[in-house]
Write a structure and sequence with these properties.
Rossmann fold; N-(1-d-carboxylethyl)-l-norvaline Dehydrogenase, domain 2; eight-stranded mixed beta sheet; globular; binds NADP nicotinamide-adenine-dinucleotide phosphate
């Protein structure tokens, strides 16, 4: 039987876990104390566009540490934490004997760019895989996840040329649980496509406190997003990567006509983070574009400005 460890029992972790549980996969959640307490007492609940699903607590394991019990040896680990926690978790995993020695794949279900490099500094590159998730998961309670939107199948693969077929059983289990997932040899293209979407919409939607649709309706915000996308494209190409469109004009056409309309009512997760006084993932989005641009001697003034504005909002300093 496939056993999957999910590290980070937040919105994505609980969401993906719910589909795996629905397929009869054995799941071990590693989460924070409050989450683990509620999962252990009340089980896991999923609501939303994929229908209601409830798993009583005796159908999965839940724990606050990476300690391994004999029956739990995993086939793989799904990493479902925010990008700013990647360094800490990568170190924790490396210090955990069985994770270091087992050789099981690590599948990063995270937004932003740079997460795979962080894990690949601690583990052999062949063990590190990335997944592009464009399903919206919202945590309504520590043990309750709501699925709000689903744009495309989950795609997963390696940024380091490793054979992604080792992830086929995971894709099969997710699909059996009700959410489509597939392996791909070109996950890099999917991750850059998501980077483009997130860099255009997340920080601007957070700063202006409006849903995505309004950003696409006004000439001034379209101008800003056009410039963000052009800068991301330049940085992506200068780092030897590509995405599904050859040039920024192709992306912007798809962005305004296909990608934005179905999510026009959506509020940026970064806006929710600002409202709640939480840390944001700006470092792995515009921040990463600025860092990559500096090392390639490219100017990215629009990404830089959004990066600085979000940093101002999160530090509260003038
Ligand atoms: N939500 C979505 O719809 C969605 C969709 C696609 C992609 N993503 C991406 O997926 C990633 C996860 O997002 P999310 O929305 O699931 O975040 P989230 O709800 O904040 O969940 C992450 C959880 O991981 C916990 N955590 C962090 N480090 C941990 C550790 N070392 N051990 C155990 N638990 C740990 C966090 O606890 P604390 O908060 O207490 O630190 C939090 O409960 C992000 O990169 C996000 O951008 C999200």
């Amino acid at each position: 039987m496939t056993t999957v460890w999910i590290v980070g029992a937040g919105a994505v972790g609980l969401g993906l876990g719910s589909f795996l549980l629905q397929s009869g996969t054995r799941v071990v959640f590693v989460g924070r104390e409050r989450t683990c307490g509620l999962l252990s007492s009340d089980g896991l609940v999923r609501t939303g566009i994929f229908g209601r699903f409830a798993a009583p607590s005796d159908q999965f394991d839940v724990q606050t540490s990476l300690d391994l019990r004999e029956t739990q040896l995993p086939n793989l680990l799904l990493i479902c934490i925010k990008s700013y926690d990647s360094q800490t978790l990568a170190r924790q995993l490396l210090e955990t004997d069985w994770v270091r020695e087992s050789g099981c794949p690590l599948v990063l279900c995270q937004n932003g760019w740079g997460n795979a490099e962080i894990f690949a500094k601690q583990f052999p590159r062949q063990r590190v895989f990335s997944a592009r998730v464009i399903t919206g998961f919202q945590r309504l309670a520590p043990n309750h996840v709501n699925v709000t939107v689903h744009a495309a199948p989950i795609r997963m693969g390696s940024l380091f040329g490793a054979d992604a077929s080792v992830l086929q059983p995971l894709c099969d289990r997710l699909a059996a649980g009700g959410i489509a997932a597939e392996t791909t040899p070109t996950v890099v293209r999917d991750l850059w496509s998501k980077m483009l979407y997130n860099c255009c919409l997340n920080p601007l939607g957070a700063i202006l406190a409006v849903p995505y649709g309004q950003l696409g309706e006004h000439e001034s915000t379209r101008g800003i997003m056009d410039r963000i996308a052009a800068e991301v494209f330049q940085v992506m190409h200068s780092n030897g990567h590509s995405t599904h469109w050859d040039d920024v004009a192709g992306f912007l056409d798809a962005f305004y006509h296909q990608m934005l309309p179905p999510t026009r009512k959506h509020e940026s997760s970064m806006l929710q983070d600002l409202r709640a006084g939480r840390r944001t993932e700006i470092d792995a989005l515009c921040g990463e574009i600025v860092r990559l641009a500096e090392s390639s001697r490219i100017e990215t003034p629009t990404n830089r400005m959004l990066y600085d504005l979000i940093r101002f909002r999160t530090t509260g300093r003038c």
